[in-house]
């Protein structure tokens, strides 16, 4: 491995110049990697997003002061059909995570939280970081253990791996692209070559841009869906499924695919060779070595490789709605310090204690028209009280979303608070594609 001597003089580096690696634990929520990063001494939570070439902050409260230096107003534009958004550009910031540090880093701070990712993910997310953190290291991503290893690109030596696949990556505007193949129909079984953005900041499996190749069109079986939010607004598309995705020698069967229209992808299509994106629902099935210095990616399948590609079959878009005060009851058997019964007869005494704790609250943001939840009568702004008889505050938002992905025809019982009235509903998950 040969790396230019001056490689990495800008951007992040090891604080200890002799360090060979750094280990970072991460949280995995909705297929997205969440890492803690200190900005000018203040710790914030970021999505590690290989699909962005800027470090962007979009959720700062009064308690999150990070001391921006010499900010100036700029406009940013990204996926979505809307206009550009106002942001502040600030240079010469110090960013760090464990023994890795970046001096003189540039930040973009969006003045309004258009994404509202914190409510959608059930945890506070302050921003996204990509190219500047990734460009100087070889990074091993282990989705199973939720650990990142940052390796010194000058000293790292790859071990022989017969079960691994090494693919070249191409950069356009500091974003990584890889060539793979997709089978788009079941009759001809033809494989179509596509160039996809490696997008660790996307939770879906695949996005394909309609008509960027003759064969890339929405299949007959699909349903319209809001796929997410971009800098320029909501991202719409047709959610479907294709027979196969081929990455090197790896064959991934029946992945879900979202076909995006030209309106939502106008800016992304400026790179004429791009056909779509490969996201977290595919990436999480591998142990990954992301190697920007040598323009390559190495993949080794993990225990998630053969998992089914599921999606939310309820029609409910549930979001975090802050904290609520919950009365909790605990029952304890009365014993002495030797664990003997307190009273000497044949009865056992219990004491009941009550405590009040702040627990998460969840509400329905939208209900897809015609979906099982819509037909059952659920409505936006309904506050969820119970799901399948279990109090909602005992779930995380990730738990709730995963429950709606479990299996076709699964029964869901849900109790909600609608403007002070407790209502009960029942429906079954319905698989559309």
From TrEMBL:
InterPro entries listed in its UniProt record: PDZ (IPR001478), PDZ_6 (IPR041489), PDZ_sf (IPR036034), Peptidase_aspartic_dom_sf (IPR021109)
GO molecular function term, any single one: peptidase activity
Pfam family, one: PDZ_6
Annotated ranges, domain PDZ: 344-420
GO biological process: proteolysis
The entry's keywords: Hydrolase, Protease
SUPFAM superfamilies (UniProt xref): Acid proteases, PDZ domain-like
Positions in coiled-coil regions: none
Protein name: Aspartyl protease family protein
The organism of origin for this protein: Polaribacter cellanae
Taxonomic lineage: Bacteria, Pseudomonadati, Bacteroidota, Flavobacteriia, Flavobacteriales
């Amino acid at each position: 491995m040969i790396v230019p001597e001056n490689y990495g003089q800008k951007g992040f580096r090891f604080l200890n110049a002799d360090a060979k690696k750094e280990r970072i634990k991460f949280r995995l929520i909705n297929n997205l990697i969440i890492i803690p990063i200190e900005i000018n001494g203040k710790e914030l939570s970021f999505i590690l997003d290989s699909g962005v070439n800027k470090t962007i902050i979009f959720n700062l409260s009064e308690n999150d002061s990070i001391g921006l230096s010499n900010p100036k107003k700029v406009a940013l534009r990204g996926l979505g059909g809307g206009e550009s958004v106002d942001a502040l550009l600030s240079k010469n910031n110090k960013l760090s995570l464990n023994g890795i540090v970046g001096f003189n880093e540039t930040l973009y701070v969006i003045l309004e939280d258009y994404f509202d990712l914190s409510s959608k993910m059930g945890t506070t997310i302050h921003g996204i970081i990509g190219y500047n953190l990734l460009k100087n290291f070889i990074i091993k991503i282990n989705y199973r253990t939720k650990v990142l290893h940052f390796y010194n690109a000058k000293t790292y030596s790859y071990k022989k791996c017969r079960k691994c696949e090494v693919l070249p990556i191409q950069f356009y505007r500091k974003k990584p692209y890889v060539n793979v193949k997709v089978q788009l129909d079941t009759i001809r079984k033809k494989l179509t070559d596509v160039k996809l953005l490696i997008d660790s900041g996307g939770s879906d499996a695949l996005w394909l841009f309609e008509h960027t190749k003759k064969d890339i069109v929405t299949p007959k079986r699909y349903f319209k869906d809001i796929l997410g939010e971009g800098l320029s607004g909501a991202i719409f598309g047709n959610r479907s499924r294709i027979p196969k995705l081929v990455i090197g020698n790896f064959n991934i069967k029946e992945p879900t695919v979202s076909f995006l229209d030209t309106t939502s992808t106008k800016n992304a299509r400026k790179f004429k060779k791009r056909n779509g994106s490969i996201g977290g629902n595919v990436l999480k099935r591998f142990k990954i070595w992301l190697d920007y210095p040598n323009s390559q990616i190495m993949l080794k399948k993990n225990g998630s490789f053969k998992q089914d590609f599921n999606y939310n079959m309820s029609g409910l878009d549930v979001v975090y709605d802050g904290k609520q005060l919950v009365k909790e009851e605990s029952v304890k058997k009365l014993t002495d310090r030797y664990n003997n019964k307190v009273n000497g007869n044949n009865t056992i005494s219990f004491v009941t204690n009550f405590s009040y704790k702040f627990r998460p609250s969840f509400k329905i943001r939208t209900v897809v028209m015609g979906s099982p939840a819509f037909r059952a009568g659920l409505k936006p702004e309904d506050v969820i009280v119970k799901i399948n008889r279990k109090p909602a505050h005992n779930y995380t938002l990730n738990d709730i979303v995963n429950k709606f992905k479990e299996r076709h025809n699964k029964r869901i019982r849900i109790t909600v608070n609608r403007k002070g009235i407790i209502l009960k509903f029942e429906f079954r998950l319905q698989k559309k594609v």
